[in-house]
Design goal:
Blueprint (H helix, E strand, L loop, with lengths): L1 E4 L2 E4 L3 E10 L2 E9 L4 H13 L17 E7 L13 E10 L2 E9 L1 H5 L5 E2 L1 H15 L4 E4 L6 H7 L4 E2 L10 E4 L2
Parallel strand pairs: 7-9
Antiparallel strand pairs: 1-2, 3-4, 3-8, 4-5, 5-6, 6-7, 9-11, 10-11
């Protein structure tokens, strides 16, 4: 799709990955997981998140350079027209590095309103994003996913993926968990 931006047209398109469910109250609601592309419009989404998710732990260090080895995935309430993402519908993001047959989940962030205000209405955003990525990576031939989890998040990962294992952090990798995707 072409979008008018002052004097030039911009072609862009986020890549649809899968549909997952989150909970709004006690009712399941379909959401989409998408991969941002290296377009001006997708970089505007990243800038929007950096600017507007002030209470977010990771949004200020979110990379705005995408390539074959560095990906940004979003979970959004938007169900179609991924060539024109509405940043206000984004519920979370994951920053992932890809290397050979390994995915390195550098960080995952859920919309601050759902975390910092104790907004109990919206649940399973992070879980749905990770589950969707695991399925996508499995189809793509990725064998393992490394994750970092502090003492608050580690029990969450271990509950969602009982098969997840502790991993020694190194100078090259700060991750402390590994998930075999096979």
């Amino acid at each position: 799709m072409d979008v008018q931006s002052r004097n030039q047209n911009i072609n862009f398109s986020a890549k649809y990955i899968t549909t997952k469910n989150i909970l709004v109250g006690n009712r399941p609601k379909n959401v989409s997981i998408i991969e941002l592309t290296n377009s001006k419009a997708d970089k505007q989404i990243v800038r929007y998140i950096k600017k507007n998710w002030k209470k977010s732990k990771f949004s200020n260090i979110l990379y705005d350079k995408f390539d074959d080895n560095n990906k940004i995935y979003l979970i959004t309430r938007q169900k179609s027209h991924f060539n024109n993402i509405n940043p206000r519908k984004v519920l979370g993001f994951a920053d992932v590095g890809l290397k050979k047959q390994n995915a390195n989940l550098r960080f995952l962030q859920v919309i601050p309103k759902a975390i910092n205000t104790g907004l109990g209405r919206v649940k399973k955003v992070g879980q749905s994003l990770i589950e969707g990525l695991v399925l996508y990576f499995k189809k793509a031939g990725i064998k393992t996913m490394d994750l970092f989890a502090d003492h608050k998040v580690k029990p969450f990962y271990k509950k969602v993926f009982p098969e997840i294992k502790d991993k020694e952090s190194t100078m090259d990798s700060y991750t402390n968990l590994i998930l075999n995707i096979k």
